[in-house]
UniProtKB/TrEMBL annotation:
Name used for this protein in its record: Phospholipid-transporting ATPase
Cofactor(s) annotated in UniProt: Mg(2+)
Biological source species: Balaenoptera acutorostrata (Common minke whale)
Polar residues: bias regions: 554-566
Annotated binding of ATP, by residue: D315, K316, T317, E607, F649, K673, R717, T797, G798, D799, R906, K912, N935, D936
A Pfam family recorded for this sequence: PhoLip_ATPase_C
Gene Ontology molecular functions: ATP binding; ATP hydrolysis activity; glycosylceramide flippase activity; magnesium ion binding
Amino acid sequence: MLPLVAVLTIIAIKDGLEDYRKYKLDKQINNLVTKVYSRKEKKYVDRCWKDVTVGDFIRLSCNEVIPADMVLLFSTDPDGICHIETSGLDGESNLKQRQVVRGYTEQDSEVDPEKFSSRIECESPNNDLNRFRGFLEHSNKERVGLSKENLLLRGCTIRNTEAVMGIVVYAGHETKAMLNNSGPRYKRSNLERRANTDVLCCVLLLVIMCLTGALGHGIWLSRYENIPFFNIPEPDGHVISPVLGGFYMFWTMIILLQVLIPISLYVSIEIVKLGQIYFIQSDVDFYNEKMDSTVQCRALNITEDLGQIQYLFSDKTGTLTENKMVFRRCSVAGFDYCHEENAKRLESYQEAASEDEDSPDTPSGSLSNMAKPRAASCRMVRNGPLGSVSSDHLTGSCFALGSGEGASEVPHSRQAAFSSPMETDVVPDTRLLDKFSQITPQLFTPLDETIPDPPLETLYIIDFFIALAICNTVVVSAPNQPRQKIGLSSLHGMPIKSLEEIKSLFQRLSVRRSSSPSLASGKEPSSGVPNAFVSRLSLFSRMKPASPVEEEMSQTSKSPQGSGNSACPIETEKQDGNVGVTNGKVESLPGQPLASSLCYEAESPDEAALVYAARAYQCTLQSRTPEQVMVDFAALGPLTFQLLHILPFDSVRKRMSVVVRHPISNQVVVYTKGADSVIMELLSAASPDGPGLEKQQTMLREKTQQHLDAYTKRGLRTLCVAKRVMSDTEYAEWLRNHFLAETSIDNREELLLESAMRLENKLTLLGATGIEDRLQEGVPESIEALHKAGIKIWMLTGDKQETAVNIAYACKLLEPDDKLFILNTESKNACEMLMDTILKELQKKNPASPEQASSEALHQPPAAPDSGLRAGLIINGRTLEFALQESLQRQFLELAARCHAVVCCRATPLQKSEVVKLVRSHLRVMTLAIGDGANDVSMIQVADVGIGISGQEGMQAVMASDFAISQFKHLSKLLLVHGHWCYTRLSNMILYFFYKNVAYVNLLFWYQFFCGFSGTSMTDYWVLIFFNLLFTSAPPVIYGVLEKDVSAETLMRLPELYRNGQKSEAYLPLTFWITLLDAFYQSLVCFFVPYYTYQGSDIDIFTFGNPLNTAALFIILLHLVIESKSLTWIHMLVIVGSILSYFFFALVFGAMCVTCNPPSNPYWIMQEHMLDPVFYLVCVLTTCVALLPRFIYRVLQGSLFPSPILRAKHFDRLPAEERTEALKKWKEAGKMDQLTSKYSDHSAVKSERIPISDPSAVFAVMSATSCAVEQGNLSVCETALDSDYSENKASGMAGPSKD
């Protein structure tokens, strides 16, 4: 009982320490302080997060974390905008915009909580991060709609805004962030669960042995006709019957043989795991010098699970990628510009990445380590390489002019997202640069008829880079005042005429900003949210050049100082008149350097990369307000575009657009960028300017498509850029129809989508871009190794489909010849039909594995991923919601199990955890989830093994994880090396514990047959206790910590060896029972060889037991030597120490214990035996006979039928050159086997396969190419991928024309 209490106490202390650590972390978060309005004190007071309740008014400052879900009522931003960083929710470190509730935007002062009398009604708490429905009702019963754009979510951080104020609608566990966290679960390793099962088998074996002893004792007593002398009667003279004697003997045998239950095994397992964790954390390969961090083992009880992973679920942003988009190439007007100098720059960054990342290219970099808690920061934006081109620059009234030194005084507590030198410094292409030099203001002066019209290519180049600069929602701010964005002069003083008043009325009736200004985030507009596409209704006052204010500014701009070197027409100057002057101050003279560098805060890395690329060609985004966007375009000077509308990106349209009034032509222009598969279909089919231009557009499209195909083959993310010119009449008509769609109640989303489609057609193609998403170092190699190890990898990301698929190809999760299946549906029935179609296609293409369709197949480990057809599955969040429903779960799992890789796009944190839980519970496989943000916490906690990456998105994932690493590439060694070692060591150690306990206890059991099953022991009880506690306990522990069956280098070079752990080959049920049979055999030999040796002699009971104990010790220890693959001096020292400690104890105990156990005693027994040659002969003979079968089996196994592990172990013994050659032959043999398997599988369906010539080709499903379901509410379901990796377009499509 004492050993059991000791074991349970140690385990309880360990679990208590882990729980206390989690309690301290929870307490730390709950006690964070925020400003809450107190009605009693009539002011804002500090209050803990845990005390925040619904209805509280909260005031937050820049860089504060939001403590609860709150509706935004006030922002210091003049446009009523609040910028937040959502890395704690969606893993993205870029900024997103939130809007003050309509009606509170115009207030100059903060809302007074005492005067707030409105009522807020909203939906019940839910976990949908992309939806919020409710309304705010004023005291006059006027209602204002609330959407997700008005909601600040807990866990986000206020950025670039001085202060905000809001009212709490969800608090505590009702917040959306908390509802997306399923909470931690107690994790037990798979090996531990199996060991518990085998312990129960040992209990059953113990019961059988005790029943045998009880039955034998009863039979033995009943054989005596008279009462035997040793059967002492009770005090009353009553004699115990044989049946009752057998019952008593059962419990006596339980006490005698209880050592069969390996209670000490659990303590040994804990010690071994601590040793394994120590060596994992001591591995220098895990050390990240840049972050000064190494691997953290936060869970002490699941190290061996690292060696049995079958499914890996990974986040994308920050986990696989560095979230750095780098501009690589572009195609403009049919000409490809490869930017070779820029490619060389990127190669230099790759060679010295850490140095470039640690040293900013600004003077402020020296102060990067002087961060203050509440100071925001931005990386300074310098002028591009075209510094020789002079231009005028705007300095808005919202920030003071400052020099570079002044800007450097700002502490850099948080680097702006997507602003590393690798992303910002773009080297222009020399050919494109030469064409830029031909752009002069005189080209656009219609007064001089001697100057010919500018070439069409020049116009395309101008429009292309203008689109890159303004077709986004990038926030421009100054580094000396990073919280305040650069704005233009206010237009509030402009008089409004009759038509303007009508539009202003429209503006007041609608939402001031778009319901989804996050362009690249790709969030689908939620139903019930007004203004799903329109960002800002137009004020026609911008169109009228004759307003008094504009005339006054036009006069100012005509002055020598104000005009600069701009030679635009007079009407253009009137349009731009408010640009040259700010608060009555004239702009800097031409050629004057930029007064203050700019900071770009983009909502996505794609946007940032395009803006920086445009800036490299001196098309610099200078400022942005809800009404205007200012661009400094090379020799043309500052151009102010009046921003009419923003049509954000969504997953249906797969594009975004901005509608502006061009300052030069005074026309309404629509600039659009999006996926090539979408933009190409929206190009104009005919040109009113004649067949010549139409033919030119057709050639332009064909050339651009060729360039796009080349980009996708290089793994670049591609976007097409196009434009459309509208007349004022066309725009006014579209605006009226759009307002009707916006204000409708029924089918509003569909009407808004149709309205956007009416605007985004008849486009003129301008060009295309190729952007490289920077993967983390070593990610493709790691994923390739994990695939070879037999691990199925799923990417679960909240990003859009195109981005996720591009990353999947770049990191080798998907191969160019993989067959992709896309699940994008809008209804459950369509989802079911499409999955059924794909399953039939897979069964037809890969008939070699029909057993996976059976119910038993779902519970089997995944098959080798290299066998048969390689398929990839892409599914979006909406369809995933249907697939996770109970009726479709089985079908979805069967489909996913047949796929080599799965990519889940637009997945919420809760969906991520549900996917992991579904696969883990239904397929009964070992799962691992890895992520770096708070949005990954839920799936990390649900998986069997959760790994957090300590990156730039906080420590939430690390705090919730079982293991923490600094880079994804470390995962390969953590699994393939340490995971394999931990599993193999613990498996063999557990089996060894069962073996040694059964082998030793059976000696006592065999003796019962010769002592009338009386429960007598032939060994002293102290020897029994110390045999397991001292003499044989240390060697298996050392074995479990230090054993290396294969070297780390070989394990990394042969990932296939990892499958040994996936299949649990080291610890199968058959292995367990064979180990017990071997233990029974060895115990028989160990008992009967001494028995027949001393048969007929007059030795006493302890003298007979001593050679049994000694032989058993040698057998058990040498058994471990046979099983060890690597014997070190530590192994030998412990084994020799165990033997010496046994003899030392036996000698001392035999010399001192005279009357320890009368009438028998161990006095001087060992001393006498050590002088007896027979004793040595018995020990040697017994040990050899007992171990001979196992030794012969191991020799034959290593010689005749070696396992892959033994073959790899043989490589470790070879010299370096021979080992390299042997490993090379191994890999070649494996590749030949794979090719043979693939050839045989593919030949079976040769008539149905299409040869793959283009790596970007994506196969479709139904009718050999596609699947369309058009029935009722079933949407068209395609399996052809509409992304940057889409199929080649048909060349017969009509070309576009310029409107």
